[in-house]
Amino acid sequence: MNLPVTDSIYKVDYTLNEYIENHPCSSEGEVEEYYKRLGEFLIILYILGGSDFHYENIIACRNMPYIIDTETLFQFNNITEDIDTAESKIGVEAINSVLSLCILPIMGLQQNQEGKGIDISALNAKQQQTPYKVLQIKNPNSSKMKFEYDFFEFKDGCSVPTLNGSKIRISKFIIPNNGIIFHRLSG
């Protein structure tokens, strides 16, 4: 495995990490390499009990996915207590599965009547709006600052690789076949 690691300076009271910029891939081959490495990270992070590696915590830099927030490693969430509703059981299964990493698509914040939610997974990284209003600060840094409920806009993320100015989704590399997904990634 050839997974990227950032340069860091570790001191007693602080740590400085290398700044990672989002850079496009130069070929479709680099896009394939990116997704292979992201899959390798998925396995390693799951084994290490990680979670919360959504679109804001992974940066696509050419053919390398860089994890920029590892504070949730070793957070084993094995919930086994008795749950009495089907919805709660599904939630517990998701928390105890690879879905807790937030790399794979998973719908969250499904609170409105239409069942709409948002997907903040690393594989999505699309601009989205919350399906309901949430408390936010309006007019920050002014004498008119206040809290107000409003829809929140999640910005477009940098965790999906780009090629020639366009985001290249992993769906380009998967082929559904009778309920089974086969990958087209070479090697």
How many helical elements? Answer: 2
Order of helices and strands: EEHEEHEEEEEEEE
Principal-axis shape equals: globular
**Helicity level:** 10-25%
How would a crystallographer describe the biggest sheet?
Answer: 2 strands, antiparallel
Q: What is the first-to-last residue Cα distance?
A: 13 Å
SS content category: alpha+beta
Numbering strands along the chain, what is their spatial order in the largest sheet? 1-2
Q: Care to count the β-strands?
A: 12
Explain what the structure shows.
The strands form six sheets. This protein has a two-stranded antiparallel sheet with strand order 1-2. The chain has two helices and twelve strands, in the order E-E-H-E-E-H-E-E-E-E-E-E-E-E. The mean pLDDT is 84. The chain has one domain (8-124, 158-183). With 187 residues, the chain is an alpha+beta fold. The protein is globular, with a radius of gyration of 19 Å. It has helices spanning 28-47, 86-95, and strands spanning 8-10, 15-17, 58-61, 64-67, 128-129, 134-138, 146-150, 153-154, 162-163, 166-167, 174-177, 180-183. The two termini are 13 Å apart.
